[in-house]
Amino acid sequence: MLALLLGLSCSCSNRPYDALPGEPLPVWEEGYLDIHSINTGRGECTFYILPDGTTMLVDAGEFHTSGAKYPMVDQKPDTLTRPYKVYAEYIKRSLRGVVKNPSIDYALATHYHMDHIGRIEKDYAVSDSGYVLTGMMALYDEIPYMKLVDRSWPEYKDNDECRNWERFARSMAARDGMQLEKFELGTDGQFTLAHNPQKYPDFKIFNWHVNGHIWDNGEIVDCWKGKPVSENGASAGFLLSYGKFDWFTGGDAGDNGKVEKPVARAIGRPIEAMKGHHHMSWHTMTPEMLEIFRPQVVVNQSFYAHQPWPATMKNVLAAGMPEGQFRDVFLTNLHDDTYADEPETLEKVKDYRGHVVLRVLPGGGSFYVYMLDDTDLEFNVKAIYGPYECN
Fold first, then answer.
1. What's the number of domains the chain is made of?
2. What is the pTM of this model?
């Protein structure tokens, strides 16, 4: 009997959701869904391991100068480690023991701002193909992408950022055979499970908005009504579904991108979790959107003292929630000055400063949230939240 109990104890402690503070997060196993919001303080990056082991990268920004009028948060883990190197080390560790030669099945650039694809900094090296090695473009040399998707292929804007991106995309397609595709609106057939789709028929990623347009019950709606679309408003966004679990991510297309409320109305139902729109800056995360989605968890990646904007944070915490209850909000970053005058708001935030991981259990019925240490490259667990039951 003692041996049996010890065996059960060991078995339980090795389950992928049984993490321990101060130790690495147990590696992904088949059937689980991982959503990793990787924090460097200098760019947004989300890495997904889907139930059959398909991998997906959404953005990998990088910058060290910005010209913004707001103070920046501290760079993580330090100012000497380039953000793309952090992303690479994090992803390789996440896949250690899962695959021998890490690669990424799908890479999506939601839009072309520096905090999503990388800034052209003067001291960054230039590749043999003539593009600056920054963000998603530098990360490719560490972990190659099998398929690259963006909002524009094959026609790009005539500016420095897009020219640099285009040189990268075309060069790697020619050199390595990397596939290139434009983000397709209104389909669940672009980001499909690459290894064992038949085993997970209740998994899908549906493309809901791009270039200022949304999919609404079979109709494509122009939210900008023919006017020029801002770069944030042009962001690509999708809904990932696994069993009862739903996760929405929309790049930087918040209400200031004219997309947030129309796409929420089009989806028209509650979800379990979402990424904060446009780093939860002003004019995003509106009460109307939150009352439709009613997410249990919101994860926000931010870089400046105005993110999350205090009024926005109050909406996110309370809108669509029962009186006196607050939503679980996780922040990768927080500047010391942001809530200096509103400590009561900060007290309601579930956790902040670290990498944030959602791990959905097989079948999509429940999930956990983990905060990982971002002060070194060990990525040990700081705190564990859950389980959250999916509706």
1. 1
2. 0.96
- pLDDT tens track, the chain, 391 positions: 333 333 333 434 578 999 999 999 999 999 999 999 999 999 999 999 999 999 999 999 999 988 888 999 999 999 999 999 999 999 999 999 888 889 999 999 999 999 999 999 999 999 999 999 999 999 999 999 999 999 999 999 999 999 999 999 999 999 999 999 999 999 999 999 999 999 999 999 999 999 999 999 999 999 999 999 999 999 999 999 999 999 999 999 999 999 999 999 999 999 999 999 999 999 999 999 999 999 999 999 999 999 999 999 999 999 999 999 999 999 999 999 999 999 999 999 999 999 999 999 999 999 999 999 999 999 999 999 999 999 9
What's the domain range around 260?
Answer: 53-389
Residue 83 near residue 40 (C-beta atoms within 8 A): yes
Is residue 15 in some structural domain? no
CATH code, 196: 3.60.15
**Residue 216 domain-assigned (yes or no):** yes
Residue 5 lies in a domain: no
12 in a structural domain: no
**Mapping DSSP to helix (H, G, I), strand (E, B) and coil, where does residue 181 land?**
strand
Beta strands in 151-301 (DSSP E): 179-182, 203-210, 213-216, 219-222, 237-242, 245-249, 273-275, 297-300
- 390: how many CB neighbours lie within 10 A of its CB? 20
β-pairing verdict for 366-372 and 355-360: antiparallel
